Request: fold
Amino acid sequence: QVQLVESGGGLVQAGASLRLSCAASGRSFSRYYMGWFRQAPGKKREFVASISWSGGTTYYADSVKGRFTISRDKSKNTVYLQMNSLKPEDTAVYYCASGATTWSTRQRDYPYWGQGTQVTVSS
Reply:
């Protein structure tokens, strides 16, 4: 059984930082890309960032490029999303996803999903 568990969300002021974690268990993820998506109230879920599990290749949405950093710790089967210079428009539920065989911004390419963690940025 595949399980992805996110943590690290919270309420912060604009300009602050947060680090999200996604702990993966249940199967080997060494061949798959992992990604972060987010869904703001009343909006569609959107791609944030992805990383190849073994190669460390990363991709970012333009809206977060230069502020967010995705990384992984293979020994812990964990992916992180370091979020700096947070803005109120970053407020959303952040989801970890896995199972993509190549880099992708499309939700349907990631068969495994976590439950999400809330990030709220106040102005």
